[in-house]
Write a structure and sequence with these properties.
The longest helix is centred in the middle third of the chain and has 21 residues. The protein is built from 11 helices and 10 strands.
Length: 263
């Protein structure tokens, strides 16, 4: 099970690699559970400041849920299918979306179904020019089940999302960029260097401030502007009492580089 998601640490950045290349990194239940376990470990490790997520092999980021395993769950009954497949997948993407440390998807190939939903859920994403996206669930007679009917319309707009959800057609990394699904498209060989560069530009700042920003955006995006402003005020209040705020202000006034401690 530990081989299903590889975990490497590069300074303060974790690299997580979905590792079922022979299955196009399809998300079987064990992979999903291992992924969530590693996220728990990383959240508790104060030395890790950001995560980059990618797929093993030359073809896929992730082709989505493991259909053979899903088929067994469906045959076992609706309640079992909802629990084993839908709830498990939604828990994973919700965890990614609300994770207190920045997560960057480095989309290196096929990102279909659940692979696309992971890309929708994470905070930032860089795509290879060889990536390919799709919302193909309709091809097997189901809607997306890991949050794709909710997050893609919020990112891309209702009509563009419905076109992809109702046709199951593939779409290019350039279109993913135009819709706001990824932040940047780069030549394939530059994918991981670009993702690490982005992570390094983030972790030079206060980790507490980064966490507060993620929380404010994630919680506020689906509320009214008035409710969102209250959330923003709350996150500021939590931040204002920290050592990092004093260090940031003192460093700015003294024209020196701040030394953040995350406290």
């Amino acid at each position: 099970m530990s081989d299903l998601v590889k975990h490497e640490t590069h300074d303060a950045i974790s690299l997580l690699t979905l590792n079922r290349p022979e299955k196009l990194n399809a998300l079987n239940y064990a992979t999903n559970d291992r992924f969530l376990y590693l996220l728990d470990e990383i959240e508790n490790d104060t030395s890790i400041r950001a995560i980059i997520l990618t797929g093993a092999g030359q073809r896929a980021f992730s082709a989505g849920g493991d259909i053979h395993e899903f088929n067994d769950s469906v045959k076992a009954g609706v309640d079992i299918a909802v629990k084993e497949f839908c709830k498990r997948g939604q828990s994973m993407t919700a965890r990614l979306e609300s994770f207190p440390k920045p997560i960057i998807a480095a989309v290196n190939g096929i990102a279909f179904g659940g692979g696309c939903e992971i890309t929708e859920a994470v905070h930032l994403a860089v795509a290879s020019d060889q990536a390919l996206f799709a919302k193909p669930e309709i091809n097997i007679g189901i809607p997306p089940t890991f949050g794709g009917t909710q997050r893609l319309p919020r990112l891309a707009g209702r009509k563009r999302a419905l076109e992809l959800l109702l046709t199951g057609d593939t779409f290019s990394p350039q279109r993913a960029y135009e819709m706001g699904l990824v932040n940047k498209v780069v030549p394939h060989e530059q994918l991981l260097p670009e993702a690490f560069d982005l992570a390094k530009r983030i972790i030079r700042h206060s980790p507490v401030a980064a966490s507060r920003i993620i929380s404010a955006v994630t919680r506020g995006i689906n509320t009214t502007i008035a409710e969102g402003l209250l959330i923003e005020r709350e996150q500021f209040a939590r931040m204002a009492a920290t050592n990092d705020v004093h260090e940031g202000l003192d460093a700015w006034i003294a024209r020196r580089t701040p030394q953040y401690t995350g406290t």
